[in-house]
Amino acid sequence: MARHATATPPPHPALSAGPATHAASGPAVRVTVQLRHRLSESTAGATWHPWVMAKSAERAYVDDVPDDVIERLRAICAELPDAYEEPAWVGVRWRVRKKTFAHVLAIDEAGADRRVVLTFRSEGDELDALRRAGPPFRFLGWGRNALGVDIDDRTDWDELRELITDSFCVMAPKKLVALVPRPPDGDCDTDDAD
């Protein structure tokens, strides 16, 4: 299948009229109201183009991330147990036990304005829903569960906090995930046992 093939996606289970937590064959998944709205707009009778961020000849990754964006992300990540910040190959990343759960960088693309993108991890139905959501979300083209979201003046920072926290829970060991305050319907899966 071509990476940029045009297709109309089937309706996603997250668009059901039920509550924001959905049980599929796996764990419960929280889908925010904003994401549900974005999904309904992006799939309503429109053709769908995967929004891939893989490196191309017309794209350059750069360090030019505004300080206020880094400060806001730093504040969110500082609340997570054992999370630490470090310079990445480009931009800044936040890690837990040598696993990156958030990475912010800027992208210059031919014929477009510079944009700031946060990469993060997701799983299950939420991963599938975010892959289908379209802008501001993007499929990165690498990693089975890696996604990106554009950060601009329309960014919902509460939603971003939730995505970063979920990403931390995907990458962190269970004993650290247990220390993360979660909403009553929240669910965190982890890659390893300790």
Helix segment count? Answer: 5
The helix/strand series, from N terminus to C terminus, equals: EEHEHEEEEHEEHH
What gross morphology would you assign? globular
From the N-terminal CA to the C-terminal CA, the straight-line distance is 38 Å
What fraction of residues sit in β-strands?
Answer: 15-25%
Could you characterize what this model shows?
This protein is an alpha+beta fold and 194 residues long. It is built from five helices and nine strands; from the N terminus they run ββαβαββββαββαα. Strands 3, 4, 5, 6, 7, 8 and 9 form a seven-stranded antiparallel beta sheet that branches. Strands 1-2 form a two-stranded antiparallel ribbon. Helix 1 packs across helix 3. The longest helix is centred in the last third of the chain and has 15 residues. It is globular.
Summarize the structure.
The chain has helices spanning 33-43, 67-78, 124-133, 157-171, 174-177; strands spanning 21-22, 29-30, 59-62, 84-87, 92-96, 99-109, 115-121, 137-139, 146-151. With 194 residues, it is α+β, with helices and mostly antiparallel strands.
Chart the SSEs and their pairings.
Blueprint: E1 21-22, E2 29-30, H1 33-43, E3 59-62, H2 67-78, E4 84-87, E5 92-96, E6 99-109, E7 115-121, H3 124-133, E8 137-139, E9 146-151, H4 157-171, H5 174-177
Antiparallel strand pairs: 1-2, 3-6, 4-5, 5-6, 6-7, 7-9, 8-9
Helix pairs in contact: 1-3
